[in-house]
Design brief:
The protein has 443 residues and is of the alpha/beta class. Helix content is 28%, strand content 22%. The strands form 5 sheets. Strands 3-2-7-18-19-20-21 form a 7-stranded mixed β-sheet, with helices on one face. It has a 5-stranded parallel β-sheet with strand order 11-12-15-16-17. The longest helix has 18 residues, at 222-239. Bound molecules: zinc ion.
């Protein structure tokens, strides 16, 4: 008796091996701006067939769902090395997989910072060992993110780093930023700016406006972001080097980037789910869960961000996933560190508050961020034969309630606990391996 029957053999996705043939059945494939009902067969880490009635060793049910390239997060804080009590590369990767991500860009504000080849290699290798998604370390723009001396761009670029940022800090010195852009242009890497003129935000805990005056706490003015966006657009114009703007929050920033794109400048921009869904008034109860940098703004800013997403001024949704252990986060507002979880809730929250078409999801969460991160040869690819099997299966219509207890991060600082959201990740396939099945992590 032969043991290998085509469609009924090992149906348990936990027990599958890479060489087995997995078929994602009955979903709607979203790829290159088109939607079509098709099965997708995978073997040895690549897509081997797209069509109808496909058979395999393992079937992944995708009925009622969309099937797309896996998501790419441009902005993930994994906290390792240095703050493993808040998150590790493994726990953060698991949260990413549950959010449909097959690749994340790890922000460099670790301890030590990602300003040397040794540290970025550690982050990359630890990500490979976890094996839940690709972890692409970013590099610092300046040594220690101190804004004084440029990091060794050439060495870091040679070791595979494409995106450089001092995230958490903006690069304050315009001359240093100009030099950084000149090196970046020659090395074919991209700088990503955290736009904050720090002299204007000293001691700030939230958006400067009516709400912060009412609460009597120091404010973070929109101008502190917009001044740096303006300066850096002009430095891009001067140097010709590309620039990515991290987590934009204000109507003024969106308008500056819109105009820069009209001028043909090589700038890109991201927005976070929380800046699309929450406002300064969420802080009226002084709950540190809503403290984040840059801060939550106003309804008018959200309207401008949504318009920026709609007209392509904003290229990507990025999470700024920022885990903090309870004992550090649950502090008085002035002392609490800024940041909130984002990976597991990004698609559902964004879809709930602004409504997304399937093609918009693929562009904002996968194709555009992969291009900006310089990994478009591996991620954000079409669903087609021969392409790497980094795949997310999701829907935009099922509803569920977010619970902090469902967070697999080492931290629980989600601001969405109790919120009803629309949309979910059903399966995630990373390099041909089923890492999330029916919304549950498989390793
Ligand atoms: Zn930042």
């Amino acid at each position: 008796m032969t043991t290998r029957s085509t469609s009924t053999a090992n149906k348990d996705p936990k027990k599958h091996t890479k060489s087995q043939r997995t078929v994602i059945t009955g979903g709607t494939v979203v790829s290159q701006g088109k939607e079509s009902v098709a099965d997708v067969a995978i073997a040895d880490g690549v897509i081997v067939e797209v069509g109808s009635g496909l058979q395999g060793d393992i079937a992944l049910d995708a009925k009622g769902c969309y099937v797309s390239s896996g998501f790419v997060d441009l902005h993930t804080h994994l906290r390792e090395p240095g703050r493993e009590e808040a998150e590790t590369i493994e726990t953060g990767s698991r949260a990413a997989a549950l959010g449909g991500y097959t690749a994340v860009v790890a922000m460099p504000n670790t301890d030590p910072a990602q300003d040397s080849v040794a540290v970025v290699e550690f982050v990359r290798r630890t990500g490979q060992r976890a094996g839940l998604c690709d972890v692409f370390p970013s590099g610092c723009i300046t040594i220690g993110r101190l804004g004084e001396q440029l990091a060794p761009f050439a060495q870091l670029a040679k070791s595979g780093v494409h995106l450089f940022t001092d995230d958490g800090n903006g690069v304050q010195d315009p001359l240093l930023m100009r030099r950084a852009l000149e090196y970046a242009r020659d090395l074919n890497i991209v700088l990503a700016q955290h736009c904050e003129v720090s002299r204007l935000t000293e001691g700030a805990v939230m958006h400067e406006g009516a709400c912060c005056s009412h609460m009597g706490v120091p404010g973070w003015p929109a101008l502190a972001e917009e001044l740096m966006v303006y300066r850096d657009i002009e430095l891009v114009r001067l140097t010709g080097a590309p620039m990515h703007f991290l987590h934009l929050t204000t109507a003024g920033s969106v308008e500056l980037v819109r105009q820069a794109k009209r001028d043909g400048l090589p700038v890109t921009a991201e927005v976070t789910p929380h800046h699309l869904s929450l406002i300064d008034e969420n802080l009226l109860g002084f709950d540190p869960l809503f403290k984040v940098n840059p801060p939550l703004r106003t309804k008018d800013d959200i309207a401008a961000l949504v318009e920026g997403v709609r007209d392509g001024t904003i290229d990507a949704v990025a999470t700024d996933h920022a885990p903090h252990a309870d004992h550090t986060k649950q502090m008085p507002l002035e002392q609490a560190p800024p940041g909130m979880l984002g990976l597991q809730t990004a698609l559902a929250v964004t879809n709930t508050v602004i409504g997304l078409s399937p093609t918009q999801v693929v562009e904002l969460f996968s194709v555009n961020p992969a291009r900006i991160a310089g990994i478009a040869d591996q991620h954000g690819r079409p669903i087609a034969v021969g392409e790497p099997a980094h795949i997310a299966v999701w829907d935009l219509s099922s509803t569920s309630e977010v619970s902090r207890n469902d967070m697999v991060s080492k931290s629980r600082n989600t601001p969405y606990h109790g919120m009803t959201v629309k949309g979910r990740i059903r399966h995630t396939v990373f390099g041909g391996e089923i890492v999330v099945h029916e919304g549950k992590a498989q390793k």
